[in-house]
Amino acid sequence: MVEVKKGETVVSVGTRKGLFLFHSRDRKRWHQRGPYFEGETIRHAILDPRDGKTLYAGVTSEHWGTVVMRSKNFGGKWVHGEEGPRFSKESGISVTRIWQIQPGADDDLYVGVEPAGLFRSDDRGETWRSVDGLNYRSDRKAWQPGGGGLCLHSILPYPDDGKRMLVAISAAGVFGTNDGGTTWRSMNGGIRKYSEDAVFLDNVAESCPHKLVRDTRDPSIVYMQNHTGVYRRKRGDAAWTAIEKGLSSTFGFPMAAHPHKAETLYAVPLEGDFNRVSPGGAMAVYRTTNGGQRWARLHRGLPQKNAWFTVLRDAMRTDDADPAGVYVGTTTGQLYHSRNEGDSWQLLADHLPQVQSVEAGTVGGR
């Protein structure tokens, strides 16, 4: 097995049948590790950017349930903590999947789970405690699952401020805290809701966010791919603003922010809720460089015929190189990557199990 060296790019790919790792010094020649946790569903796995060596994987096992595994030697050995994230016995709620793993603003770690819940670890995944202010809200009984379940799939800590955080839940909406998770406010104003009579309504009490990302240069700006459109919101705004001009469709799942450039992010539109595939069977990634005022279609090197692909909510990420790399995985097992910020694409891996998530990091940290 080829050694993983400092400075290399590591791409972790969670699939329906295990975790795959790809690493490269130049992002041209790639080496594969794994699969790890063969036959098990990995919804999300990350290389911790704080040390650039610890991998965390959220494993959903038919035999052992849900557990957060970690490795400090790139899959050579995996261990788990004393306990996984668990709701209180009194709640009657049981964790069925781990959807998101996210380092916090401080020396902490968060996971988002299904049924929707947020848990925090202060010892790098050894033990977990419930963020009760969110998990046991009085309106929890009114939360409704999206097509993928009632899942907390996006966790956005505010850089350098451990008290501020945003989370997104399908299909309960976006919630924010300014006091470290003691209290949470609903942040769904301005989002259209698709009602039973096919009418779009504004300022609904709930919505179905598909993915939430923060602007890298200005963390007060957040972008969202929602079931009913693509939106932008800045701290202090009363509501979300639609940013859809130039997209082939307002429906999709993933979003990814550029690691260095302000107001630059990526989206992958799908035909729609009725047919969740690449529009016209032509795969493309869209990029905006001005916060969603305009979008450009990027397709050089991507299949443009009979590519009936689906890209799930966590299956697109950027690395932190310059120029930035972009990585996209499909439910049919293709992993595409770009070394030039999306201008052109190559196939990094094929015939993988259904891709659930893609993350990219640098060995040795930032």
| Main sheet record | 4 strands, antiparallel
**Cα Rg:** 19 Å
Q: State the shape.
A: globular
Strand order of the largest sheet: 3-2-1-30
Number of separate helices: 1
Alpha-carbon distance between the termini? 25 Å
Mean pLDDT: 93
Unreliable stretches (pLDDT < 50, length at least 5) are: 196-205
Tell me what portion of residues adopts beta-strand conformation: 35-45%
Helicity level: under 10%
Number of strands: 30
- Helix/strand-derived category reads mainly beta
What would you note in describing this structure?
This protein is an all-beta fold and 366 residues long. The chain is 1% helix and 42% strand. The chain has 1 helix and 30 strands. The protein has one helix at 132-135; strands at 9-15, 18-24, 31-36, 41-47, 55-61, 65-71, 79-80, 97-103, 109-114, 117-121, 129-130, 151-158, 161-170, 173-177, 185-186, 193-194, 200-201, 209-214, 221-226, 229-234, 241-242, 252-257, 265-269, 285-288, 296-298, 316-318, 326-329, 335-338, 346-349, 355-362. The strands form 8 sheets. The chain has a 4-stranded antiparallel β-sheet, with no helix packed on it. A 4-stranded antiparallel β-sheet has the order 4-5-6-7, with no helix packed on it. A 4-stranded antiparallel β-sheet has the order 8-9-10-11. Strand 4 (41-47) and strand 5 form a beta hairpin. The longest helix is centred in the middle third of the chain and has 4 residues, at 132-135. The protein is globular and about 50 Å long. The two termini are 25 Å apart.
